[in-house]
Specification:
Distance between the termini: 30 Å
CATH class: Mainly Alpha
Number of domains: 1
CATH superfamily: Na+/H+ antiporter like domain
Largest sheet: 2 strands, antiparallel
Number of strands: 2
Strand order of the largest sheet: 1-2
Shape: globular
Mean pLDDT: 85
Number of helices: 15
CATH architecture: Up-down Bundle
Radius of gyration: 21 Å
Helix content: 55-70%
Structural class: mainly alpha
Order of helices and strands: HHEEHHHHHHHHHHHHH
Low-confidence stretches: 381-385
Strand content: under 5%
Length: about 375
């Protein structure tokens, strides 16, 4: 339990810092000097001998966020090896629930955007759950959510991350240069071989990891997925004094993800018809997908899994808990913003999707909090059919 508790504590703290960073981005973008927001993040940054003339935002989104995906990959690996996802029957319920929580939001989004045709490529935006914000809301609820309920939400969110990674890799890659991909796979294979023969030094893995990232960046495949691939092959056993996850997780949650939010959450509303923006099909598709899609999808697929005897509700978790946790899973921020950046090239279209992310996430967080806040604290023997 210690690694899990440490993970949830860091993520909860990260949720607060993330909220501050998102608020700062919105304030900056809508200040009298708000035009400097886009100019600053579009500033070219020359990365030395590798000759990558990219903007600050690209460096953050494709570079720093690789560390975020590395930590996500390490957490997925730990859960698959020694956590709740290691047993097929235990993992079945949150995995099936997560599938429903991805399918329904995507379908709702497409229902809004297909008639007009604009923005159809953004169907992956409302599929993601932001673990940091979700666990932050759960922390505010204290003992109204049992530990088993928190574990269910965490396992669901991790399964959701696996789905999001697959969607990004398969549907949001540019034209792929297979030679670069093959070379990147070779680099990952070398790291795996190094682990198998007992190499533990970062001096071996760091240069290879940077090479794998560079090769994927050049290939057209999302470069941040290098973090996930590396996480699956580098040494990360509990016998080591400090695991990569323990070392990197605070940096990811408290520094890198807030910087990402600062670089991407700055939607400019000055001079914009807010009524038209909020009611635009893209914004509505994202917002309703996050709120209604997650609640209906997670609840329905959880019921279906139990009906088919593929799993059982965790101890002390009632159906009211499931609905409330499903609503909180509709807080989709970090990965939703990330997919927005991949899905849309124009700032105006991306801002519509971000507006939907803000609205849907806020509504989901408030709905889930209110639903679970009305639950009796543990020990009061509240049961549901």
């Amino acid at each position: 339990m210690r690694p899990l508790l440490r993970f949830t504590q860091v993520e909860s703290a990260g949720g607060i810092v993330l909220l501050v960073a998102a608020a700062a981005a919105l304030a900056w973008a809508n200040a009298p000097f708000g035009g400097s927001y886009e100019r600053f993040w579009a500033t070219p940054l020359h990365l030395g001998p590798v000759h990558l003339d990219e903007s600050l935002r690209v460096v953050v989104n494709d570079g720093l966020m690789t560390v975020f995906f590395l930590v996500v990959g390490l957490e997925i690996r730990r859960e698959l090896v020694s956590g709740d996802l290691r047993d097929a029957r235990t993992a079945a319920l949150p995995a099936i629930a997560a599938l429903g929580g991805m399918v329904f939001p995507a379908l709702i989004y497409l229902a809004f955007t297909i008639p007009g045709g604009e923005g159809g490529h953004g169907w992956g935006i409302p599929m993601a759950t932001d673990i940091a914000f979700a666990l932050g809301v759960i922390a505010l609820l204290g003992d109204r959510v049992p530990v088993s309920g928190r574990l269910f939400l965490l396992a669901l969110a991790i399964a959701d991350d696996i789905g999001a990674i697959i969607v990004i890799a398969v549907f949001y890659a540019d034209s792929v240069a297979l030679g670069y991909v093959a070379a990147a796979i070779g680099g990952v294979a070398l790291m795996y071989l190094g682990r198998r023969i007992g190499i533990r030094s970062w001096v071996f893995y760091l240069p290879l990891g940077l090479a794998v990232w560079f090769l994927l960046f050049q290939s057209g495949v999302q470069a941040t997925l290098a973090g996930v691939a590396i996480a699956l092959v580098i040494p990360a056993t509990s016998g080591e004094s400090v695991s990569p996850e323990t070392a990197l997780h605070p940096w990811s949650s408290l520094v890198i993800v807030p910087i990402f939010a600062l670089a991407n959450a700055g939607v400019r509303f000055v001079g914009v018809d807010l009524g038209a923006a909020v009611t635009h099909p893209i914004a509505l598709g994202v917002a309703i997908g996050l709120l209604a899609g997650k609640v209906v999808g997670i609840t329905a697929f959880t019921w279906l899994a139990i009906r088919l005897r593929l799993g059982a509700l965790p101890r002390q978790v009632s159906w009211r808990h499931v609905v409330g946790l499903a609503a909180i899973a509709g807080i989709g921020f970090t990965v939703s913003l990330f997919v927005t950046d991949l899905a849309f090239d124009t700032v105006g279209t991306a801002d519509l999707a971000k507006t939907g992310i803000f609205l849907g996430s806020a509504a989901a967080g408030v709905t889930g909090f209110v639903a679970l806040r009305t639950m009796k604290p543990l020990g009061s023997d509240e049961s549901e059919p």
